[in-house]
Request: fold
Amino acid sequence: MTLKPTARAAFIGMVLSAAASASFAQDAACANRGDLDTQFCDANKDMVADTPTDPKKLKDPSTLVFAFTPVEDPSIYEKLFRPFMGHLSQCVGKKVVFFPVQSNAAQIEAMRSGRLHIAAFSPGPVNFAVNLAGAVPFAIRGNDQGPVGMHLKMIVQKGSSYQKLDDLKGKRIAHTSPSSNSGNLAPRALFPKLGITPDKDYKVVYSGKHDQSILGVKTGDYDAAPVASDVLQHMTDRGVVGKDDFRVLYTSEMFPTDAYAFAYNLAPALQEKIKGCFFEYKVPAEMAKGLGGDRFLPITYKKDWQLVRDVAQASGESFTREAFDKAAQKK
Reply:
């Protein structure tokens, strides 16, 4: 059937009107959304998406998909997590598979689209994952003293002439990705107070990952790089880089490390089961050595990610879809 121009215009008008009405109804039904994307609601104001009250919107998949934060060689971390994947599968009574991701953006989009159910997000991207993908952070790695953390370290080659941050003016510095906390947002928030401003005093080049920034400094592709101390330590422990390959020009205060989160629309009983399975797990020695921490500890996004949000906002970052798309275009 072919519609006449006037009929076509009327039809389009009806569709747009219906869409607007649906959007208005959704907004009216949500008493508070905060910074969350429009498909989510935050009635209890805990800054994460509420679990849907409509049973039809809840998910209880037969297979759970888990992803660790993007790294240079996902196979290493897939091996480290293999014992935990077995534990989680047996504990929840479902098949659990490890899904390697190549970027923070891909990981966030996977959870947003419903293809990813549980994930460890890097500190900076956690904010985008919460607001855009409905991620609900619930755990962090830790030990008997509390959560383990990481520091931002500005590294240069050990044999370089650079002795202080000021020496890096005019140089080529590798930041990891726009949404990274220690690899981009923290340097932008902290370095100006130390007399050196990214993009103004030195050229920022995005490497994609902390691993690539570290290797790039080692090979001389970059003059320096702000990197996460835990990634640097893991690469040193594995012998990928030597402990004497670098000189550290700056070390920040401690930030939280990766946050483990599940998708907001998992069935409530499944959410509780997943949390219980994480918290009861005794991390084996090899996994503890490779990741840091010998257990999983409970966290809340509102409280435990306050420092990360403050640093990001101080750097001028916002956690909207527009900012996310803009950051993706920089790569």
Q: What stands out?
A: The first helix runs from residue 5 to 29. The radius of gyration is 22 Å.
